[in-house]
Amino acid sequence: MLIFKAFSIVLWSETLMETECSCSHVENLWFSLTDVLLKMHSVGICGSDVHYWERGRIGDYVVKKPMVLGHEASGTVIKVGSSVTHLQPGDRVAIEPGAPRETDEFCKIGRYNLSPTIFFCATPPDDGNLCRYYKHNANFCYKLPDNVTFEEGALVEPLSVGIHACRRAGVTLGSRVFICGAGPIGLVSLLVSKAMGAAQVAVSDLSASRLEKAKEIGADFTVKIKNERPEEVAHMVEGLLGCMPEITVECTGAEACIQTGIYATRAGGTLVLVGVGPEMVTVPIVNAALREVDIKGVFRYCNTWPMAISMLASKRVNVQSLVTHRFPLEQALDAFETTRRGLGVKVMLKCDPSDQNP
Ligand SMILES: *[C@@H]1O[C@H](CO)[C@@H](O)[C@H](O)[C@H]1NC(C)=O
Predict the structure, then answer these.
(1) What are the boundaries of the signal sequence (predicted)?
(2) What is the sign of the dihedral through the CA atoms of 337, 67, 149 and 159?
(3) Which residues, at least 6 apart from 104, have a Cβ–Cβ distance to it below 8 Å?
(4) Minimum-distance ligand 1 atom for the alpha carbon of 315
(5) φ and ψ at 69, to 5 degrees?
């Protein structure tokens, strides 16, 4: 049953792959005044896509019918709804996958990521955009300048997780930051911490090759974890930085890492929880309380695309080196398998048969 469920997701995306954009097909799509139709170009694979593919659920989000995967994406506008004024056919755009459906209280205070009714690509039951053509709310499509590639446009999504996490953590000029986990989210949190002015960033992971990548993109220190106790890891981090970090960005969701995050963070500092693991974990919460370590949650992001795009245009952040593999859309299964086996950092699917460039 599970295998069938997992397989049906890919079957569905393959069905869409075959779909050519005949005009009648496009006209038949439900298309609102505020939507744009996009010809998809690059879609990055996220751990959550692989998780839905393999397991059919993440926590309370359960895949109950075929769902198109993909939410780290960019493409070209080919048609605009009649009330869209800021985009026109031919514009290259980065897609923000979360588009609120209503102007609720969360939306009014600018924290639309918390809106319970938000549309979000590839979170059941909402379809993602790993396909040839896709329509989206135009207000959540952002024009890319000529000097930002489609792949950089797609990488605005993971980069946004790093921006939101670093904003919530209060990273600023001179911050000392400890990042747990050197997967894609740990790496973008590293890039953003540095861009926001962090003086020193230490990154931990179990994998030497992931830490190598962290070094390559700017980590000041790396901490290879074997089977040390959380207090020991915290001590190693303090030794490397020469002091305890004011900020810890936890990107694994593992119980031991959350424990480490509390012990590692300086009194009065902030721990942000970005990684998602089991709902119930045992952590030294009293230690955090007595040292006034603030623990903050992070859920996706909000209000990050314009800033991320200008950071990329000004070349203050370099995300291109995160892309380690590229596959045409027809080879989506190989791409998912590559991601599942943890072989690369970021795997990109190329959805436009006539343009497979970055
Ligand atoms: C990229 O393009 C933008 C907008 O056209 C421009 O402001 C910026 O200076 C350019 N950046 C570089 C590094 O060329």
Answers:
(1) 1-21
(2) negative
(3) 115, 116, 117
(4) 13
(5) -85, 180
- The alpha carbon of 145 and the centre of ligand 1 are apart by a number of angstroms equal to 7
**Residue 142 β-bridge partners:** 94
Q: Whose CA is nearest to atom 4 of ligand 1?
A: 145
Q: What six digits make up the tokens of 295? A: 């623990």
Token match 């298309």: residue?
31
| Residue 11 pLDDT level (bands cut at 50, 70, 90) | very low
Pocket residue to mutate for ligand 1, from 314, 315, 317, 318, most atoms within 8 A of Cβ: 314
Q: Count the Cβ atoms, other than its own, within 10 Å of residue 32.
A: 12
DSSP state of 138: G
**Mean pLDDT score, 296-301:** 98
Over its C-alpha atoms, the chain yields an Rg (Å, rounded) of 20
Token pair of 223, please? 């901490």
Ligand 1 pocket test target in 146, 147, 152, 312 with most atoms within 8 Å of CB: 147
Q: Which atom of ligand 1 lies nearest, measured to the CA of 313?
A: 1
Task: Give the residue ranges of DSSP H helices in 128-271.
Answer: 150-169, 184-195, 208-216, 230-241, 255-264
Is 70 exceeded by the pLDDT of residue 4?
no
Q: How far apart are CA 327 and CA 334, in angstroms?
A: 8
Task: Report the 10 Å Cβ neighbour count for 222.
Answer: 20
Taking only the tens place, the pLDDT of each residue in 63-92 is: 999 999 999 999 999 999 999 999 999 999
**Long-range contacts of residues 19-27, Cβ cutoff 8 Å, at least 24 apart:** 19/131, 19/132, 19/133, 20/132, 21/78, 21/132, 21/133, 26/79, 26/133
How crowded is residue 61: how many other Cβ atoms within 10 Å of its Cβ? Answer: 16
Please, what are the domains in the chain? Answer: 2-155+319-350 (3.90.180.10), 159-297 (3.40.50.720)
Enumerate residues lining ligand 1, CB below 6 A.
Answer: 145, 147, 313-315
Residues 6+ apart with CB under 8 A from 126: 67, 119, 120
